[in-house]
Specification:
The chain has ten helices and two strands. By secondary structure, the protein is mostly helical. It folds into two domains: about 5-70 and about 165-230, no CATH class; about 90-160. Strands 1-2 form a two-stranded antiparallel ribbon. Helix 7 (about 165-185) packs antiparallel against helix 8 and helix 7 packs parallel to helix 10 (about 220-230). It is elongated, with a radius of gyration of 30 Å.
Length: about 240
């Protein structure tokens, strides 16, 4: 859905603060948890127009609970493993940031030698003075030592099962996010149904305070489409 379409849907309510309306939806009536409602004529209960959204929300809540349980288990395993292995060595990418620069006198020596080097020989380091090459060799040796220390540390963590639940956690995250996508792909017919979409948006880490997200976010775009459809008598 384009931003223009979403904006048009929102502008149909000039006297309403859109953000406050969306916040209100987040704490909508507990009627959203009821799958069936009685008909106005007092007949047998009929299914709520947004019953499918309510069911998906319940499934999403169950997936969220599973994800949190695995997250807590993983966190405990990670802390236990790190405590057993001991202090972590510096990570290779952090060492690269702190890698010492070539001393000034060696840099000057290199620049002097460079003046007599032909272009075709530039990529080779054979032309560099011996002290410069020795410094480079020492730096490369230290780089290798840092990488080896980190690899050994990481291997010990894996042996202790610090990431044993990582695959299960990632699967739960994907399942959780997929529920949000499914919820937002289904048209809502009531404000309770729209509230389900907003709660799904927040559950997956979305925000409702940033004004610019109103036009760009998938959940808000879906809600805006619902509002436009209802404003047109449910025919859009």
């Amino acid at each position: 859905m384009s931003n223009t379409t979403v904006r048009a849907a929102a502008e149909g309510m000039p006297e309403i603060n859109r953000r406050r309306m969306l916040l209100g939806l987040a704490v909508a009536s507990t009627a959203a948890a009821t799958i069936t409602v009685a008909s106005a004529a007092g007949c047998a209960p009929v299914e709520h127009p947004d019953a499918e959204l309510f069911r998906l929300e319940q499934e999403m809540e169950a997936a969220h609970a599973r994800m949190k349980r695995i997250e807590r288990t993983s966190s405990r395993a990670d802390k236990k493993a790190r405590k057993a292995v001991g202090p972590a060595p510096i990570q290779p990418h952090e060492w690269e940031k702190q890698e010492p620069k070539m001393p000034g006198h060696l840099s000057e020596m290199r620049q002097t030698a460079l003046k007599s080097v032909l272009f075709v020989n530039f990529l080779s380091t054979d032309w560099e003075p011996a002290p410069v090459r020795a410094w480079r060799d020492a730096a490369e040796k230290e780089r290798g030592r840092v990488r080896a220390a980190w690899d050994e540390y990481h291997a010990k963590l894996k042996e202790l099962g610090y990431d044993a639940n990582e695959d299960a956690f990632n699967a739960c995250c994907s399942e959780h996010d997929e529920f949000a996508k499914r919820i937002c792909s289904i048209p809502a017919h009531t404000f309770e149904g729209m509230a389900v979409k907003l709660r799904a948006h927040v559950r997956t880490g979305g925000e409702i305070e940033k004004e610019e997200m109103y036009l760009d976010d998938y959940a808000f775009a879906s809600i805006a489409a619902d509002i436009r459809r209802l404003a047109n008598g449910g025919t859009a």
